């Protein structure tokens, strides 16, 4: 069996997230069905992470195995020809059998984008959270800094997945950077892993900080309590994009499209 890695970009607006679920369109199912059709075998596609409904991706990663030999460039062309325009495969390459899209990852980067202006922009409304009032960037940066480092992030895991979070609730956020390029504000999260809805829950907490619903001093205490019931609601999904996923040097060189 040969193993292959995909880099995937998608607009998540019309999908119920990455993971296959009954009676709802998902990214995983859409790609998997078309791969199976092209290769004429049952393909199981494994993603690096489960983006939830409405979340977008510029650099999602997935892998699959196949017993067949085929041209990678031809498969890339065929797959993009069949997929809807809101899903694009950016690259396909061979990877070692030890590679796993989820478990081999060493760093993931998410970006949450805010559009700050008196009037919403119809051309960015699918990808940004519109906030009409002025934003205190200094306070936003101070709040974000509270989450950097290794912490038990149970308080920021979606309640439906608390059981899953109990096994490995400690994650390390290497960096949270707030950058402003008017009218856009980007909050960039880099970490070794994220619990389900963790980024949206952190952003939701930062939004409440900006609204003065919570204080800057209360954030470390919210982390310490490890209780999702004590933390604010998540930020809307459409402002979040999975930007990139990094892996250690592979055991052998990847075979590029040919």
Task: Give a written overview of the molecule.
The protein is of the alpha+beta class and 258 residues long. It folds into two domains: 2-104, Pseudouridine synthase I, catalytic domain, N-terminal subdomain (Alpha-Beta Plaits), CATH 3.30.70; 107-243, Alpha-Beta Plaits (2-Layer Sandwich). The chain is built from six helices and ten strands, in the order E-H-E-E-H-E-E-E-H-E-H-E-E-H-H-E. Strands 1, 2, 3, 4, 5, 6, 7, 8, 9 and 10 form a ten-stranded mixed sheet that branches. Helix 1 crosses helix 2 (72-82) and helix 3 packs across helix 5 (198-210). The two termini are 19 Å apart.
Helix and strand arrangement:
Blueprint (H helix, E strand, L loop, with lengths): L1 E9 L16 H13 L6 E2 L8 E11 L5 H11 L4 E9 L11 E10 L12 E3 L5 H9 L3 E4 L9 H4 L4 E12 L2 E8 L6 H13 L7 H8 L14 E7 L12
Parallel strand pairs: 3-10, 5-6
Antiparallel strand pairs: 1-3, 1-4, 2-3, 5-9, 5-10, 7-8, 8-9
Helix pairs in contact: 1-2, 3-5
Which percent band covers the strand fraction?
25-35%
Radius of gyration, whole Å: 19 Å
Structural class category = alpha+beta
From the 3D coordinates, which CATH architecture of the largest domain would you assign? 2-Layer Sandwich
How is the CATH topology of the largest domain named? Alpha-Beta Plaits
Q: In CATH, what is the homologous superfamily of the largest domain?
A: Pseudouridine synthase I, catalytic domain, C-terminal subdomain
Uncertain ranges:
251-258
Number of helices: 6
Q: Strand count, sense and closure of the main sheet? A: 10 strands, mixed
SSE topology string: EHEEHEEEHEHEEHHE
């Amino acid at each position: 069996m040969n193993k292959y890695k995909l880099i995937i970009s998608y607009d998540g607006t019309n999908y119920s997230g990455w993971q296959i679920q009954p009676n709802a369109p998902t990214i995983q199912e859409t790609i998997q069905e078309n791969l199976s059709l092209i290769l004429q075998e049952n393909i199981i596609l494994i993603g690096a992470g489960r983006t939830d409904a409405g979340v977008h991706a510029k650099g999602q990663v997935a892998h699959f195995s196949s017993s067949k030999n085929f041209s990678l460039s031809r498969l890339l062309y065929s797959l993009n020809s069949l997929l809807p325009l809101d899903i694009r495969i950016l690259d396909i390459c061979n990877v070692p059998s030890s590679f796993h899209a989820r478990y081999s990852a060493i760093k993931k980067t998410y970006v949450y984008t805010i559009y700050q202006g008196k009037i919403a922009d119809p051309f960015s409304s699918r990808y940004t959270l519109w906030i009409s009032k002025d934003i205190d960037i200094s306070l936003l940066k101070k709040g974000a800094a509270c989450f950097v480092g290794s912490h038990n992030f149970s308080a920021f895991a979606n309640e439906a997945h608390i059981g899953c979070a109990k096994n490995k609730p400690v994650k390390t956020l290497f960096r949270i950077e707030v950058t402003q390029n008017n009218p856009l504000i980007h909050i960039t999260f880099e970490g070794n892993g994220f619990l389900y809805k963790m980024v949206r829950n952190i952003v939701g907490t930062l939004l409440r900080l900006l609204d003065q619903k919570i204080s800057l001093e209360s954030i470390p205490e919210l982390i310490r309590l490890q209780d999702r019931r004590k933390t604010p609601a998540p930020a809307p999904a459409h402002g979040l994009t999975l930007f990139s996923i990094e892996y250690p040097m592979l055991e052998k060189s990847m075979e590029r499209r040919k």
